[in-house]
């Protein structure tokens, strides 16, 4: 029996040209080209970054998730570097050179040491990642509120958020107000997440991880931050046409400011006699079937409550700032701000819209 000791199929000849534009080089070059503009735009953060940058957590659960993400990123970056350096070395060191024999080099099969190494090392990496992740999940999960928590029920609707504060008898929309929780007075916020219709997802990156908001189910989430400020978030599960305009604003207040906000929300809306016509009009249109407004006949729950409407900075779940002009445009034609929105154009005359808006802007 004869054996081919060179393992060289006689018919195969390598073309020099196929070795030089190696796909690996193409990938490395493409990667560098992609990284270059990223380095160029990594200047001072814009305002949006400051309020929603997930790399700057300010709340305990967000901080824990951030630490895990950094560990995973570091391990993956290490793997990328080792593989990249070895690959580059092999490509340069063993590339084809003039005068090389044009035959396939000797093929080597089986190395117990190598195979053991590339099995054991990845297993260790996976185990480390698994344990670190399990620990973080355990730290971040809180199934029941701890004593002294502020409990808020969050209800996802297409396409806005309802916030109920059972402890204070307050219901508001789209803008969540919570107190700071500092070492002297620890007061985490515990959110019960419910959905009125489809699956949404509550996500305010600097405060906590993303949690799904599912119909017929109660999920939960907690926030514990000592840093007052405004934090932006977003529904993070596609829920229909206006998913992108299902924004979240979370205001973290000092204890005194939070108490003041609670008092303002608990106070009845003022009844201003100068806008009686608008109030009358509001109560005689279909507005009352979808919106609630304390002190009037309006008790609808399909749309956001209008009580203390002007205490909010935005309308339409963050679609526009809450100015009298925007409010007017919104009432005239909500779909101009949010195509597909479930609030219809009420076909009011220009004069009626003026009366209605004049009334709405008194709801401080
Ligand atoms: Cu709600 Cu996406």
Characterise the protein shown here.
The chain is an alpha+beta fold and 364 residues long. It has a domain at 273-360: Immunoglobulin-like, CATH 2.60.40.420. The chain is built from 9 helices and 12 strands. The protein has helices spanning 23-41, 47-52, 60-93, 112-140, 255-266, 276-284, 287-290, 324-332, 350-360; strands at 150-157, 160-165, 170-173, 175-179, 189-195, 200-203, 211-213, 219-223, 229-235, 247-253, 314-315, 320-321. A 5-stranded mixed β-sheet has the order 3-2-1-5-8. Strand 2 (160-165) and strand 3 form a beta hairpin. Helix 3 (60-93) packs antiparallel against helix 4, helix 6 (276-284) packs across helix 9 (350-360) and helix 8 (324-332) packs across helix 9 (350-360). The longest helix is centred in the N-terminal third of the chain and has 34 residues, at 60-93. Mean pLDDT is 85; it is low at 1-21 and 36-46. Dinuclear copper ion binds next to loops.
First and last CA, distance: 98 Å
How much of the sequence lies in strands comes to 15-25%
The largest beta-sheet arranges its strands as 3-2-1-5-8
**Bound compounds, please?**
dinuclear copper ion
Q: Would you identify the CATH architecture of the domain at 273-360?
A: Sandwich
Q: How many β strands by DSSP?
A: 12
Report the C-alpha radius of gyration, rounded. 30 Å
CATH topology of the domain at 273-360: Immunoglobulin-like
Structural class: alpha+beta
Low-confidence runs? 1-21, 36-46
Helix content: 25-40%
The H-level CATH homologous superfamily of the domain at 273-360, spelled out, is Cupredoxins -  blue copper proteins
What does the average pLDDT come to? 85
Order of helices and strands: HHHHEEEEEEEEEEHHHEEHH
